[in-house]
Design goal:
The complex is a heterodimer of chains A (353) and B (400). Chain A is 56% helix and 15% strand. In chain A, helix 8 runs antiparallel to helix 9 and helix 8 runs antiparallel to helix 12. By secondary structure, chain A is an alpha+beta fold. Chain A has 3 domains: 105 residues, Acyl-CoA dehydrogenase/oxidase, N-terminal domain (Butyryl-Coa Dehydrogenase, subunit A, domain 1, Orthogonal Bundle), CATH 1.10.540.10; 85 residues, Butyryl-CoA Dehydrogenase, subunit A, domain 2; 145 residues, Butyryl-CoA Dehydrogenase, subunit A, domain 3. Chain B folds into 3 domains: 81 residues, no CATH class; 108 residues, Beta Barrel (Butyryl-CoA Dehydrogenase, subunit A, domain 2), CATH 2.40.110; 138 residues, Butyryl-CoA Dehydrogenase, subunit A, domain 3, CATH 1.20.140. Chain B is globular, with a radius of gyration of 23 Å. Classes of the chains: A alpha+beta (353), B alpha+beta (400). The interface between A and B is large, with 48 and 52 residues.
Chain lengths: 353, 400
């Protein structure tokens, strides 16, 4: 028995972390978030490390690894608040294409980092007013709001019956939507008899793609929250008031302890949820729901508390702590807010109608 | 990630299951710990290696090599079968490991065999009215008079004092040494003249604990574990055992299942409580947290087997486990509303009133065994490396 990461996985984690530390530090994140630099170069560099190819089978030019490996990558990207289309292009896109079958050519381009797939599943999770997608005769109509990884070449769209479709960005109207989180672009799609490739009508496929995406968001929050905790601890050791480090005051050290106490069990939870996606299918959906919702709650607590440990400096743009604060806030709402996801968890156990 | 225990261990699991189904009619069900049935069952378990498994044969144990997984399998199978896993208590869980580590050969032979067989019951004399979180400031004194220690002072929170034959007790033997170096670890009989036990009724209405008073209690000189002044180190190794055992996520899981059942049977205006979204969401929130602690527990188990470091994951268990358990019990009460207040003799009582009992008892456990605040000091100082709080100047100097 070994509940944890293998040596290879730890090595992969270390490699990715040191690449991101060296090459995609906060200053570069700032430039990308501010629109002074494109995020495309980061994705090309990550593709060279194999991040875009993790879940693509070797026969299609990929690395052929498992969702747990992707969750490790997601945690690293969250830790560094890295702008990248990882969720759609490295996880949810390939997962959908693999389930659909017969998409070898697209998988090859995804693995090479040459194809980017954005995610438009929001309406099938919780449709807001004026949004919703219907499918008929190979064409899609309606509107998809809050598309993740906006700016892609193609979009994975779910219709109101949870069928999965692929549309080309060139075949539809779309526009970016400004949000509080600048490291991951969002937009809307307007579909008017838009030609679509029908990938799957099986709601289980929709669910599998969604579960994978939710575990990745949970892992991203795990990384982002760990970074905020690390920054808070470092700041509490260094910052002095009343002639002593603020971290020697129980009021402050207990805030740090509470963050660690909530976050540390999340690590095992994310590992298991990632593992279950491919290895324990009967538990995959429930653990994905709980990992998503629980990490959202713990992340929110840490985003707030770590900022408070920094006092006034935490509130400024100077430290850049807010990039992680907003990233965690984004992950909480994307692909289902905690209340919605917990209700799904209840339904999965026949505890709710 | 490899979650299988492996074929060898699954074969062992089958053995345990066979044993349980062949012998379950002999297992005690709520008999007192001194009853013949309990003592016989304990003996049978030791003979088969399901109790006192790793205690050397020379001390009456089964003598197996320590193995985290076999212990876990035994615990799982007895729990699943709802059959008594044998005796517990502070003597078996805390004193015996300590004697194995630092006791003399004489002490091991004298105390371990009767303790593991349930013939010698122990209580723990650590906390005092003036020494709670700051345990090392304890003042119960032992002074050497010829071949005997003479003990004077008071202990509190001594849970099984009224049932115990013996006590393992922290006393101050070196009043002039720094506080951590002046403590010794004594063993003595609870029927020694000069010991008075007073039950301490707590908020649950039951005396779960006692106060114990010592007046000129005479203890043979050799009944000390470790050297004079080393009692603090001895005690600390035991406290680590205690913390790890509070907040066990597997017990929490069965309690969560009881909560789900309760919410499926209780109704409000004819609707099951679980069908009301506000209550259901609270249940799901708690389930998510229970799940996280369960996976954390698997990680800790694995870290012990594979000798990996997971120290922070271990430090958070007592804090998280007891706080979560208290919240879980609270939801049970809330699900019943006014009915949840029923306690004692009341025709509308649910589950013997144990939701209220556990709700209060777990508040006690948030405080006991190292308060939540002490846990946070440990996590932040030892886990995160934050500086200790500067020492306040001694009281005497300030008031002089």
């Amino acid at each position: 028995m070994d509940f944890g990461l293998s040596e290879e996985q730890t090595l992969f984690q270390d490699t990715l972390n040191s690449f991101l530390t060296d090459q995609v530090g906060l200053e570069r994140v700032r430039r990308i978030a501010g629109g002074e630099e494109s995020a495309s170069a980061v994705w090309a560099e990550l593709a060279e490390l194999g991040v875009s190819a993790l879940l693509v089978p070797e026969e299609h030019g990929g690395v052929g690894l498992k969702p747990l490996d992707a969750a490790i990558a997601a945690e690293c990207l969250g830790y560094h608040a890295t702008p990248s289309p990882f969720l759609g292009s490295a996880v949810m896109g390939p997962t959908a294409l693999l389930l659909a079958g017969g998409q070898g050519e697209r998988l090859e381009r995804l693995a090479a980092g040459e194809l980017r797939i954005g995610i438009a599943l929001g309406e099938a999770i919780a449709a807001r007013a004026e949004a919703g997608v219907s499918a008929a005769d190979g064409k899609l109509n309606g509107k998809a709001l809050y598309v993740l990884d906006y700016g892609a070449d193609e979009y994975l769209v779910a219709d109101s019956d949870r069928g999965l479709h692929l549309v080309a960005a060139g075949d539809l109207e779309h526009q970016p939507l400004s949000t509080v989180e600048k490291t991951r672009p969002t937009g809307e799609l307007v579909l008017k008899d838009t030609p679509a490739i029908h990938l799957s009508a099986d709601p289980d496929h929709f669910q599998a793609v969604l579960d994978a995406g939710r575990v990745m968001l949970a892992a991203d929050t795990l990384g982002a929250a760990q970074n905020m905790l690390d920054q808070a601890v470092a700041y509490a050791q260094e910052r002095e008031q009343f002639n002593r480090p603020i971290g020697s005051f129980q009021a402050v050290k207990h805030m740090c302890a509470e963050m660690a106490a909530h976050l540390e069990p999340c690590r095992a939870m994310v590992w298991y949820a990632g593992h279950a996606l491919s290895e324990v299918p009967e538990e995959a959906h429930l653990t994905a729901c709980h990992a998503k919702a629980h990490l959202a709650e713990v992340g929110t607590f840490i985003a707030r508390t770590a900022t408070e440990v920094h006092g006034g400096m935490g509130f400024t743009d100077l430290l850049g702590l807010h990039y992680w604060f907003k990233r965690i806030g984004f992950n909480r709402q994307a692909l289902g807010a905690p209340e919605l996801v917990r209700e799904e968890a209840a339904r999965a156990q026949q505890l709710a109608a | 990630m490899d979650l299988s225990y492996g074929a060898e261990y699954e074969a062992f699991r089958a053995e345990v299951r066979d044993f349980i189904s062949a012998h379950r009619d002999q297992a005690p069900k709520g008999e007192g710990m001194r009853s013949e049935k309990v003592l016989k069952w304990q003996k049978l378990l030791i003979e088969h290696g399901y109790a006192a498994r790793t205690i050397p044969e020379a001390y009456g144990g089964f003598g197996a090599e320590p193995d985290v997984l076999t212990s876990r399998i035994i615990a799982e199978e007895f729990a699943n079968a709802q059959v008594s896993p044998g005796l517990g208590g502070q003597g078996i869980s805390m004193l015996v490991p300590t004697l194995l580590e630092v006791g003399s050969e004489e002490q091991r032979q004298a105390f371990i065999p009767p303790t593991i067989h349930g013939e010698m019951v122990w209580c723990q004399g650590y906390s005092e009215p003036g020494a709670g979180s700051d345990l090392a400031s304890l003042r119960t004194a032992a002074v050497l008079d010829g071949d005997e220690w003479v003990v004077n002072g008071q202990k509190i929170w001594t849970s099984t004092a009224h049932l115990a034959d013996w006590i393992f007790c922290l006393v101050r033997t070196e009043p002039d040494a720094p506080k951590h170096q002046g403590i010794s670890f004594l063993l003595f009989r609870m029927d020694t003249p000069g010991i008075e036990i007073r039950p301490l009724v707590d908020m649950t209405g039951t005396a779960n604990f006692n106060e114990v008073f010592f007046t000129d209690v005479r203890v043979p000189k050799q009944q000390i574990v470790g050297a004079r002044g080393q009692g603090w180190q001895v005690a600390n190794s035991i406290l680590r055992h205690e913390r790890a055992s509070l907040g066990d996520p597997n017990i929490m899981l069965s309690r969560l299942n009881a909560l789900i059942k309760l919410m499926q049977s209780e109704t409000i205006d004819g609707r099951r409580v679980i069908d009301l979204p506000a209550y259901r969401d609270r249940l799901m929130r708690i389930q998510g947290r229970v799940m996280a602690l369960g996976f954390n527990d698997m990680r800790l188990l694995s870290a012990r087997i594979n000798q990996k470091d997971a120290s922070l994951a271990g430090m958070v268990v007592k804090l998280q486990g007891t706080e979560l358990r208290h919240e879980l019990e609270q939801l049970g009460i809330d699900a019943m509303g006014e009915l949840g207040l029923a306690y004692g003799k009341n025709p509308y009582l649910r589950d013997h009133g144990n939701w209220q009992t556990h709700y209060m008892y777990y508040l006690g456990l948030i405080i006991g065994g190292g308060t939540s605040q002490i846990q946070k000091n440990i996590i932040s100082e030892r886990g995160l490396g934050l500086p200790r709080e500067p020492k306040v100047a001694a009281k005497a100097a300030a008031s002089a």
